[in-house]
Design brief:
The structure holds two protein chains of two kinds.
Chain A: E1 2-10, E2 16-25, E3 30-34, H1 41-48, E4 56-61, E5 64-65, H2 74-78, E6 81-84, H3 96-105, H4 111-124, H5 140-152, E7 158-162, H6 170-185, E8 189-194, H7 197-202, E9 206-211, E10 214-219
Parallel strand pairs in A: 3-8, 3-9, 6-7, 7-8
Antiparallel strand pairs in A: 1-2, 1-4, 4-5, 9-10
Helix pairs in contact in A: 3-4, 3-5, 4-5, 5-6
Chain B: H1 7-20, H2 22-59, E1 61-66, H3 72-77, H4 79-83, E2 88-94, H5 96-106, E3 124-129, H6 135-143, E4 148-152, H7 155-197, H8 199-208, H9 212-250, H10 264-290
Antiparallel strand pairs in B: 1-3, 1-4, 2-3
Helix pairs in contact in B: 1-2, 1-9, 2-7, 2-9, 7-9, 7-10, 9-10
The chains are: A alpha/beta, B alpha+beta.
């Protein structure tokens, strides 16, 4: 579960990125966070992953109070999250399977756990047959599925996808969203940051809209409204 | 909650990283070898100098002359009292007859010293010291022993030894300090390069929840390997150079007075120091290099 209570964030250059944001994401939810560039979406993600600290307010992520989290606790908090990036961020010289193994080794998983879990997750994203290929031998959609598999492989409570379809064509984008929806149905909370209106509106999910550092709408089964965003 | 470490993986990553940027690793090992060689050579010169100095020190002594009124047997018995004085290594009794014989031998053929009456000589002790730098106070203490009339020494020789030893120690310390810093700087830059090469992987690891310790270990292991390889190469080179120089010195007519110590009895100690210094440089260098990068 994620809770943002009156969250403020000001950067050193004086920019006020967030102005009293309140948001709650319960376990098992699927949430779209939408808004134009510079609205504060990325700042919210960086706060949730503890890359930056809030200037004010209270922030809870999966049982960790990020207002007074110690540097030693941050890695363990991050293990409750799986992050997917727009540019995939796969290790090009490693195979699909090795990319996933790498993510599990980073948290000290045993060889037995790795073998079992990697096969399961690759099967889930439909890439078991391509496990020995390198990322540059895959299409953009397949690469993003590898990135989702990597985010999932450590069994996080929540997947955070930052513009996951930004580099994909509409068909591949839809496939990725359907994959995320399936992952959500299996019990993992999903937060998708996007500004692709048509894609959001194809799914009847909760949509939180942010603009100028403020939440301007939060509707379950809502739509990405033309009037509220660019 | 604790991070579980797969040390096989961490060591493997450390080795892999060395070969990923082989040239820099080679340069780092070469620098460590150079630094250890200079450091080692200087230290061995210092050790040999100390060895030669101590030989010379053995020749250094002062003499304590016994009062004429003390009979020879009583004078000889003063040996225990003199040897009980702090810093006296040993005292050697010389009768006035022996002194006269030595003197006449030294100045044989010199008419000025011929036929000197025997009563100008005194019984005496040649006193050898443990620490030549404490000559003055030892001499004063020996003068306090009942029966000792006066003492005679050449303090300028002792002072000379001290000056040479102090200069050698200071130069050695400064050189070792500078070379350690240079080695640290180079190994730290090598590790920084390794870190830079793997920055994307590290960002992913950290986002997955890797602890700083887990990220740090492969770089520390890389630094350790570079340091140890440098130490071992430097040790064998040092051995070879020492043997060559030793042979050259022993075979030279002009510096035949100098004695060169055998390397074999010192080999284990030299290897130990080299390994320790290599290890410390490697580990410290890598820790310094990655410290500020781990704060994300």
């Amino acid at each position: 579960m994620i809770r943002l209570i009156d969250i403020e964030k000001s950067y050193d250059n004086g920019t006020k990125a967030l102005k009293g944001v309140n948001m709650r994401i319960d376990d098992g939810e699927f949430v779209f966070l939408v808004g134009p560039s510079g609205s504060g979406k990325s700042t919210i993600l960086k706060l949730i992953t503890a890359e930056i600290a809030p200037s004010g307010g209270r922030l809870m992520v999966n049982g960790y109070n990020l207002n007074n989290i110690t540097p030693r606790q941050v890695p363990y908090m991050r293990r409750t999250l799986g992050v997917v990036f727009q540019d995939f961020r796969l290790i090009e010289k490693k195979t699909v399977e090795d990319n996933l193994i790498f993510a599990m080794q980073a948290v000290g998983a045993s060889s037995k756990e790795i073998k079992k879990r990697v096969a399961y997750v690759l099967d889930l994203v439909g890439l078991l047959e391509k496990s020995h290929q390198r990322p540059d031998q895959l299409s953009g959609g397949e690469q993003q599925r590898v990135a989702i598999a990597r985010a999932l492989v450590n069994n996080p409570q929540m997947i955070i996808a930052d513009e996951p379809t930004g580099n994909l064509d509409p068909m591949r984008s839809l496939e990725i969203m359907m994959l995320l929806e399936r992952i959500n149905e299996l019990g993992t909370t999903v937060l998708v940051v996007t500004h692709e209106r048509e894609l959001v509106n194809r799914f009847s999910k909760r949509v939180v809209a942010i603009e100028n550092g403020r939440i301007i709408s939060d509707e379950t089964g809502g739509y990405y409204n033309n009037e509220t965003t660019i | 909650m604790r991070q579980r470490y797969n040390f096989g993986y961490l060591i493997g990553e450390g080795f892999r990283s060395i070969f990923t940027h082989g040239f820099m690793s080679f340069a780092a090992v070469c620098m460590i070898v150079c630094c250890l060689l200079i450091m080692g050579s200087f230290s061995l010169v210092a050790v040999n100098a100390a060895y030669n100095f101590s030989d010379l020190e053995n020749e250094n002594q002062f003499s304590a002359f016994i009062d004429e009124s003390v009979p020879q047997e009583e004078a000889r018995a003063l040996q225990d009292d003199i040897e009980a004085v702090p810093n006296v290594a040993r005292a050697e009794f010389v009768t006035k007859e022996e002194a006269q014989a030595d003197f006449e031998k030294d100045y044989e053929g010199n008419p000025l010293f011929e036929d000197l009456p025997s009563d100008v000589y005194r019984d005496r002790f040649h006193i050898y010291l443990e620490d030549i730098s404490k000559l003055e106070e030892t001499e004063t203490a020996v003068k306090q022993v009942a029966g000792v009339a006066y003492t005679k020494s050449a303090p300028e020789i002792a002072e000379g030894f001290n000056v040479i030893r102090n200069i050698a120690s200071a130069v050695a310390l400064i050189l070792v300090g500078i070379l350690l810093l240079v080695s640290l700087f180079i190994i730290s830059n090598t590790i920084k390069l390794a870190f830079f090469n793997r920055r994307d992987e590290i960002a992913i690891m950290k986002m997955c929840g890797a602890t700083n310790g887990f990220v740090r270990w492969p770089f520390v292991i890389e630094g350790m390997i570079l340091g140890l390889v440098g130490s071992i190469v430097a040790f064998f080179l040092q051995w070879g150079i020492y043997a060559l120089v030793g042979r050259a010195v022993s075979g030279s007519d002009t510096i035949e007075l100098l004695k060169v110590m055998d390397f074999q009895p010192m080999a284990l100690m030299v290897l130990g120091y080299f390994l320790l210094i290599g290890l410390v440089i490697g580990v410290l260098g890598s820790l310094l290099a990655i410290r500020k990068f781990l704060q994300v």
